[in-house]
Design brief:
Length: about 1150
């Protein structure tokens, strides 16, 4: 691993060349004069961060990169070096606690990674050595070794399939551990491979390791005596990936091409970019403010100290003579050390333990999402998944939701509905089963059927143009189909045949052909077999497969019939097929395609072409040459595809229904009610996507649609750029006027539709246009519309849209949700990425922050979990700053009464234990368990989500409210106890209290006040809350008795010896403690009473409004919302809008 990094750094072999040469079996080839074994990395997997030797320095370095930890380290060093008023233990122990807890957590996680690595690296495998199988550890596999894998074993490295136990030279694998796809994928051996691997002499030339799971380029040179080397192309269909599992195949042999950390699995686990929540940014801003307060306090006290000492007799009083060393100290050095001493004295205003508490809250809080039973889906027997816990609170701040359509809004469970052949419509639900020629009327004006020959040709195209594999089902799994997700519903007894496919579309089309008597029987040795109406078996030799590509949006097969005819069958999107067929055939099909898309069906067009001998020979040569290329293979294949897929004949089109997800409309309606703007980003056709938006209630019948598509840009007969300019300004004027008059109920709503081609013009206009101006207009139009539909989107365009909104004014919080690989880019781009465990694989789930089984679960994830998580952590952050300011303000005030002599008010034990033990557990329990509003109320009233939008509880207004409250209580603590000490004789025996008694009384009032303040804020009580709140107070009392009741031998001076006992023996102290606690909490109590009164007034208003005949529905909703919670129920609208306070239960 080190060698590979050095090679990359200093221009090693892998950096200089784009390919690698592998000797199969690590044996020299006849064409090689001198055999020098190339050096590749071993097969060890290393996912751990640390070793025994570097754990301590590396972990400490990473932890002290955090500003708060580094700050406390500096404070600790200052206490050690400079003569400060407090012991180094007071800051060193909390810092040690934080560093130790974090190190233990990270060390344990890394130990688990070491343990997992060891299990993988020590796993026994079988390798062919000199033709004989030998067992060795997985980590000892070298590139070029021939490895044997049996059924249900995982591949120990990336292998090229050389030999399979199946007769058709294929094998089936599952890649669930790589991309979550539960289907069986088919892989093929290298063509014309020798059966005797012991005598095999070959080399493999392939690309250097790269992380794309679905791309591989290489070629294999096979050497035979007295023959020229045979060259075979290698692609992803020949590559078996590490981590995949062998299924339905007894045994295979493969040669290792990538090992260890160069396997595609290892390259894909390099981690994603770190996302930061808005709460973290607020914490940093608040920390900066408190750091300024700290420095100001230190500057003020240092200045006052020297002002005090400048008076006669104060610099060197008779009872405190200076030493010779102090007299020789330079004044400015002394002032600087005093400044540092005051910084140390007041440093507890910075809450270092808050970071640990926040991390624990996020980590433990994420389990509530995983444990939520409402997220469990019995169909796939899975629940929600949390890939990162750092963004829990961000779920409560979402302003824009970007959603995919297929598989997210819809089920991706395809059902063949109808088709069109030569303009005649055929439904899937026919009354005649023995004939396909049943029509419900032609779409075109011709009143005649398409004809039996065309019908048979169409059905043959459906049976041949696909990559479906037939799985002969066993007695326990009869008729089960496998796509990229859970098995679909079993077929009827007449259709007891299972299919393995990469897309549910292909299964639906094959099943559709089966309903009309054309059955696909499978692929055997490059021969495709189908059974026709007469139950005759037709055989076609599969010559080439022109794979589907999201850019081409079509796929083709080239087959040869028994009669010798060479046919090309092609299916794909209408926009991809229509330009490649005869123009006169398009109009017969276009009307059907448009009508089916309007009804919400997914449509595909089907075409064919007879290839002459010369045409096929040219295509075959071009394909073979392109597949052998190591450089630009995909571009060369694309050129051949485009050349052969021309001048085709259009046969017809299919319509497949993709039904809406369960509760999709209710979920979208709830999200819009919560104030979120929903954008649909899809690669589907506009008509289909528009119908889905209407079905999901994103568009309503009263919504006026603004359309910016290729059709509208070309409708004016002018250049596209000119039309784009005019349409953008016209749409902006309409949407802006709608936004300005949004208060009016009669104001029309606007929806915006844009396609990929129009978006490309907006994002990348011609050089003579204003790019930024177009983007600004486009964004403003989108933001002023109720919903936006972006159709015909490429994956990168989806990410462009998300990035444009994310970086717009105000930096709104964005969320992307999708289920397929084409959604990964927008999921990674958004602030929060949600993956749906759908049927298009698990790439989206792997790259997401959270994963849910179905779209309907997004409603509770955001409206309930997101809402509560945000309130909890916002309260946690504000509470930490509040209680630390309460803690340190009396210490600051005390300096005015001790001549700024740096005399501490509290004992060192109290300074150390305050944040660690006395006040940490109650706020942690609160931040995990608090429910200010019941979950049912949050789900029923989506508008409650708006009250916490835009980081409402962590703005400067609430922060100022908490700061003023802390200052008020700090003043009460200090001056209330000072008033008590106006009569120093507080005990019956006339003994007076000293300064440590003063500080202990202040600290007692402080601990009880901040803890009871949290108790007042708690609305959802559990036994855990009771235990930690009352237990913390009891622990403080017990600790104080214990700490002051024993003479500790390790202490040079014991300041609190029997101080706590004497304090509690005074009735005056008891009275003042209780009185100050009540007085400090009085504002919260009064506000609570006033809020309850205001809530009752709102309930009365609600009843009166509901009795009125002409009461506005919107006003009834508002009154209902205000009666169910009181975040916005004001004592004074102006005050509480500026200073929000916690909720109160009704």
């Amino acid at each position: 691993m080190l060698r590979r990094r050095l090679n990359r750094l200093f221009g090693g072999d892998e950096k200089r060349v784009d390919s690698r040469t592998i000797y199969v079996g690590n044996r020299p080839c006849p064409a090689t004069e001198t055999f020098i074994p190339p050096k590749f990395c071993d097969n060890r997997i290393v996912s751990s961060k640390y070793t025994i030797w570097n754990f301590l320095p590396k972990n400490l370095f990473e932890q002290f990169r955090r500003i708060a930890n580094f700050y406390f380290l500096i404070i600790f060093l200052v206490q050690v070096i400079v003569d400060t008023p407090t012991s180094p233990v007071t800051s060193g122990l909390p810092l040690f606690f934080v560093i130790t807890v974090t190190a233990i957590k990270q060390g344990y996680e890394d130990w688990l990674r070491h343990k997992a690595d060891s299990e993988v690296n020590k796993y026994p495998v079988r390798v062919l050595e000199d033709g004989q199988p030998a067992r060795k550890d997985s980590e000892k596999i070298k590139v070029g070794d021939i490895v044997e894998v049996v059924e249900d074993e995982t591949f120990p490295c990336d292998l090229i399939l050389l030999q399979s136990s199946r007769d058709d030279d294929t094998c089936f694998v599952t890649t669930a551990s790589l991309d979550g796809e539960s289907n069986h994928k088919t892989h093929y051996t290298v063509p014309d491979m020798e059966k005797d691997l012991q005598s095999l002499s070959a080399t493999i030339e392939c690309e250097q390791p790269q992380p794309d799971l679905y791309k591989f380029v290489g070629r294999m040179h096979i050497y035979k005596p007295e023959h020229d080397p045979a060259v075979r192309s290698l692609g992803p269909e020949n590559l078996l990936l590490k981590g995949a599992t062998l299924k339905n195949t007894k045994k295979i042999y493969g040669v290792a091409v990538y090992t260890g950390m160069e396997t595609k699995m290892a390259l894909n686990y390099q981690g994603k970019s770190q996302k930061r929540s808005a709460v973290e940014k607020s914490i940093n801003a608040f920390l900066l403010v408190y750091l300024c307060i700290l420095i100001s306090k230190a500057v003020v006290c240092t200045t006052l100290k020297y002002v005090w000492q400048s008076q006669d007799g104060q610099d060197e009083p008779w009872y405190n003579q200076k030493t010779e060393k102090e007299k020789g100290t330079i004044l400015y050095v002394k002032m600087f050390t005093d400044f540092l001493s005051f910084m140390v004295l007041f440093n507890f205003i910075i809450p270092v333990s808050m970071y640990v508490t926040v991390e624990m809250q996020k980590f433990l809080g994420s389990f509530f999402i995983t444990w939520d039973r409402d997220f469990f889906d019995p169909e796939i027997e899975e629940g929600a998944l949390v890939n990162t816990s750092d963004l829990n609170e961000e779920l409560g701040q979402v302003e824009y939701v970007f959603t995919d359509k297929t598989g997210t809004l819809t089920q991706n469970n395809m059902e063949f509905i109808e088709c069109c052949i030569d303009g005649f419509q055929y439904t899937a639900f026919s009354s005649e089963l023995d004939s396909f020629c049943v029509t419900d009327g032609p779409v075109s004006t011709f009143q005649e059927k398409a004809g039996r020959v065309r019908e048979e040709l169409f059905l043959r195209a459906l049976c041949l143009c696909h990559t479906v594999q037939v799985k002969e089902a066993g007695p326990d799994e009869l008729g089960g189909d496998q796509v990229d997700g859970p098995a679909s519903e079993p077929l009827r007894p007449a259709e007891q045949r299972g299919f393995i496919a990469s897309s549910p579309d292909e299964v639906a089309l094959v099943k559709g052909a089966m309903r009309y008597g054309f059955t696909f029987l499978g692929l055997e040795s490059k021969t495709m077999k189908i059974k026709n109406w007469q139950n005759d078996v037709e055989e076609y030799e599969l010559l080439h497969v022109l794979n589907f590509d999201p850019v081409r949006r079509r796929m083709s097969v080239i087959v040869r019939s028994k009669s010798g005819d060479t046919l090309l069958f092609c299916k794909g999107a209408d926009s991809s097929i229509f330009p490649r067929v005869r123009p006169e055939e398009v109009e017969r099909i276009r009307m059907h395609v448009q009508r089916s898309a309007t009804e919400g069906y997914r449509t595909l067009c089907v075409a064919y072409k007879r290839l002459s001998v010369d045409e096929y020979a040219a295509a075959d040569a071009g394909l073979r040459e392109a597949r052998l290329a190591l450089q630009d293979r995909e571009e060369k294949l694309m050129a051949v595809y485009n050349q052969v897929e021309t001048a085709m004949s259009l046969i017809g089109a299919t319509a497949v229904e993709d039904r809406l997800q369960e509760e999709a409309a209710q979920t979208m309606e709830a999200l819009q009610g919560a104030g979120m703007k929903v954008w649909v980003l899809t690669g589907d056709k506009m008509e289909t996507a528009k119908s889905t938006c209407y079905a999901c209630r994103l568009f309503r019948r009263s919504t006026e649609l603004l359309e910016l598509t290729v059709r509208t840009l070309e409708s004016g007969g002018r250049r596209r750029e000119e039309m784009l300019h005019d349409l953008l300004f016209d749409f902006h004027r309409k949407a802006r006027a709608c936004f300005v008059r949004s208060w009016s109920s009669a104001n029309p709503e606007y929806g915006f539709i844009v396609d990929g081609a129009a978006l490309a013009l907006v994002m990348n206009p011609s050089p003579d246009t204003n790019c930024s101006r177009y983007r600004s207009l486009f964004l403003q139009i989108c933001q002023n519309c109720t919903a936006v539909l972006c159709c015909r989107m490429a994956p990168l365009q989806k990410a462009q849209i998300v990035k444009m909104v994310k970086n717009s004014k105000g930096s709104p919080i964005t969320l992307s949700i999708g289920d397929g690989a084409n959604d990964v880019s927008m999921i990674l781009e958004a602030h929060v990425g949600i993956g749906v465990k759908g049927k298009e694989g698990r790439q989206a789930v792997r790259n997401s922050d959270y994963a849910i089984p179905k779209l309907k679960h997004l409603r509770k994830l955001l409206l309930a979990h997101g809402h509560l998580y945000y309130i909890r952590i916002a309260h946690l952050v504000q509470y930490f700053f509040y209680k630390n300011l309460c803690f340190i303000l009396p210490q600051f005030l005390y300096q005015f009464f001790c001549g700024c002599s740096q005399q501490p008010l509290y004992d060192a034990a109290y300074l150390t234990m305050y944040n660690i033990c006395f006040t940490s557990m109650p706020i942690l329990a609160y931040s995990l368990l608090e429910q200010q509003i019941a979950i049912e109320v949050l789900l029923d009233n989506a508008t409650l989500y708006r009250d916490i939008a835009k980081n409402a509880m962590l703005r400067w207004g609430p922060f100022l409210y908490w700061t003023v409250l802390a200052v008020f209580q700090g003043l009460i603590f200090f001056f209330g106890v000072k008033y008590l000490f106006s009569n120093p004789a507080l005990q019956d025996n006339g003994q007076v209290f000293g300064n440590w008694s003063y500080g202990t009384i202040v600290f007692t009032v402080l601990v009880f006040t901040v803890t009871l303040k949290l108790a007042l804020d708690t609305r959802h009580w559990t036994w855990i809350n009771h235990f930690v709140i009352w237990g913390s107070l009891a622990f403080y009392v017990v600790f104080s008795f214990f700490w002051g009741g024993i003479i500790w031998p390790f202490l040079k001076q014991q300041r609190l010896y029997f101080v706590f006992f004497n304090m509690l023996s005074s009735v005056s102290a008891w009275l003042v403690i209780i009185l100050l606690i009540v007085l400090s909490l009085l504002p919260d109590i009064l506000l609570g009473v006033l809020r309850n009164r205001g809530a009752r007034v709102c309930r009365c208003a609600t009843h009166r409004a509901s009795d009125g005949k002409r009461a506005s529905p919107s006003r009834r909703v508002i009154h209902k919302r205000r009666s169910q919670h009181d975040l916005t129920v004001p004592v004074s609208n102006r005050i509480l809008k500026m200073f929000p306070v916690p909720f109160m239960d009704q």
